[in-house]
Specification:
By secondary structure, this protein is an all-alpha fold. Helices cover about 70% and strands about 0% of the residues. The protein contains eleven helices and no strands.
Length: about 230
């Protein structure tokens, strides 16, 4: 249906344009960094494993999601002038992030052979990324209003980068760190993963409500976003 068509258009946009395609390739290469994160001396470092799981299960979604909506700046007007449901548009973004997180999790699943804890932690962070991080990316992404030239190289290219990109990452990283510190204070840091997983499940359970909230935010911001995207 409409959501599938929107996702198909987004995938084509990524694969046919230099900057998002380069980001995709870089994200895939970055998945190999697990061999650095999961060195023997780090296997009992719960904080390190938290951030490793968070990043490895969402590396592309997080990198790409920082510029959500800006990727489509050159044809964003067509979305708001045609009869495209805002809810379907937002849900297509959410499902795109969900699928990319699942693929990242599957690709990095062999790291669990190093230690079963890695598989458990990454599973909890996958739920967190699907239920919480994806919604945060969409909500904060409605404040993106900088145009991006899809044909330019990704390397040393700061076009479209602003305060919003840094602001998006703060809540995604800060919440797991805060939860870890709370449980570390009580000397049970491993409970932080249960909490993050539960938060992710709650986010998934209330998915429809959260997506509607993101849609309402998008509707309020879309004309300001469109105005910014027109600026060259």
């Amino acid at each position: 249906g409409e959501i599938g068509d929107l996702m198909r258009i987004e995938i084509k946009m990524i694969l046919r344009n230099k900057r998002p395609k380069t980001m995709l390739y870089v994200s895939i290469v970055f998945l190999a960094y697990g061999f650095i994160f999961y060195a023997k001396e780090n296997l009992d470092n719960y904080l390190m494993n938290t951030f490793a799981g968070l990043i490895l299960t969402s590396i592309f979604a997080m990198n790409y999601g920082q510029f959500i909506f800006s990727w489509e700046s050159s044809f964003f007007d067509s979305y708001i002038t045609n009869k495209i449901s805002p809810y379907s548009y937002i849900k297509s973004k959410y499902l795109f992030f969900t699928i990319s997180c699942l693929l990242s999790f599957i690709i990095t699943l062999p790291y669990a052979l190093i230690s079963y804890k890695i598989g458990f932690i990454n599973s909890a962070l996958l739920l967190y990324n699907i239920g919480i991080s994806s919604i945060v990316l969409i909500l904060f992404g409605t404040y993106n209003s900088n145009r991006i030239d899809l044909g330019r190289s990704q390397f040393m290219n700061y076009q479209g980068t602003g305060f919003t990109q840094f602001l998006i990452i703060i809540p995604i990283l800060a919440l797991p760190a805060l939860i870890y510190l709370i449980f570390s204070f009580f000397d049970v840091p491993q409970y932080s993963f249960y909490t993050l997983g539960i938060l992710g499940v709650i986010g998934i359970a209330f998915n429809k409500y959260l997506l509607q909230m993101a849609t309402n935010q998008f509707i309020k911001r879309k004309y300001k976003m469109a105005f910014g995207f027109r600026q060259k």
